[in-house]
Specification:
Layout: H1 11-23, H2 25-37, H3 43-55, H4 61-96, H5 103-124, H6 130-133, H7 135-140, H8 145-170, H9 175-209
Helix pairs in contact: 1-2, 1-3, 2-3, 2-4, 3-4, 3-8, 4-8, 5-8
């Protein structure tokens, strides 16, 4: 990646730059794919950097989009496979071991996914946190592979294009994208936190009414 010392980022971003310097497009695919399995470098950081790399001539913009989307799909397939390997009965058993969870919660989730699974996989690819998790229930419920790959590819391409193009247009100012992506991620995490608190309070009240200690 052709960049001056002032432009070159440090920390995790610097690591991502080094990987793309040495591996090019496949390096971007590797980093984005890892975010789907274990997020050492968030894809919201890697994607604008891939756009920045394209603006510096390391790869073309088309190749940046191709490789990042390829990485998203491959990483999602790994998580899908893990869900399929775990299977419905094993996941059900794990959920029932979680305090305050009921078997009805599992069945309710199954019914919801059966009804909204295609939309969940497509739009889930465009929501921080969920984009790394939605492949797991798709695998558990054995969504047809062709359908899962199609929805994941389209959703990932839309999401990746926004960040890669922003990084490409902003150039050395790609950090602006990362800052806003970080805010969005915190909003999603806060929403999840509120939902968990509401669930726990509601379930504790139910147990109290039922006289369960």
């Amino acid at each position: 990646m052709v960049a001056t010392a002032a432009e070159r980022p440090g920390g995790l971003a610097g690591l991502a730059v080094d990987v793309m310097d040495h591996l090019g497009g496949p390096g971007a695919a590797l980093l984005v794919g890892l975010d789907n399995v274990f997020p050492p470098v968030p894809s919201e950081l890697v994607l604008p950097l891939a756009g920045f790399a394209a603006s510096q001539g390391t790869m073309s913009l088309l190749m940046a989009l191709f490789w990042t989307t390829t990485g998203s799909v491959v990483g999602a397939m790994v998580t899908y496979w893990l869900g399929a390997r775990l299977g419905r009965d094993r996941v059900r058993g794990l959920i029932l071991r979680v305090p305050l969870m009921k078997e009805s919660d599992f069945h309710r989730t199954e019914r919801w996914f059966a009804k909204h699974g295609t939309k969940a996989v497509f739009f889930g690819r465009m929501v921080p946190v969920f984009r790394s998790l939605i492949s797991l229930p798709a695998g558990v419920e054995r969504m047809p592979v062709w359908q899962f790959v199609s929805l994941t590819t389209l959703g990932s391409l839309i999401w990746n294009s926004v960040f890669v193009l922003a990084g490409y247009l902003l150039g050395a100012n790609w950090q602006v994208v990362d800052s806003y992506a970080g805010i969005l991620q915190y909003v999603v995490l806060a929403g999840i936190g509120v939902a968990i608190v509401v669930f726990v309070v509601k379930r504790l009240r139910e147990r109290k009414k039922a006289g369960v200690k």
